[in-house]
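Record type: monomer structure entry
Structure origin: computed from sequence
Chain ID: A
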Amino acid sequence: MKDPRDIIIRPLITEKATDLMEEKQYVFEVHPRANKTEIKRAVEAIFNVKVVSVSTIKMPRKFKTFGRYSGYTALRKKAVVRLSEDSKPLEYFETV
């Protein structure tokens, strides 16, 4: 997992995540085995900003049934990234 684009899977845009953007906090879905240091370096490399802190949340797997087939959903991990006060907002989120 050396490439930053392998660590950051996609940004999550929800109602709560949109409220966090006003406080310079952004939510991403990240690789389940990525640690906070790797996430911080990946965001800084992709968006050219200064990251202050990273909080991670492991989303529990859910049991699902589709007709006669049943199983569990994939393990997901979210990261809330806080930018420094002098950092500019991320361009990706401004266009969405």
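Annotation 1: Residues 36-47 form the longest helix (12 residues).
Annotation 2: The chain has a mean pLDDT of 91.
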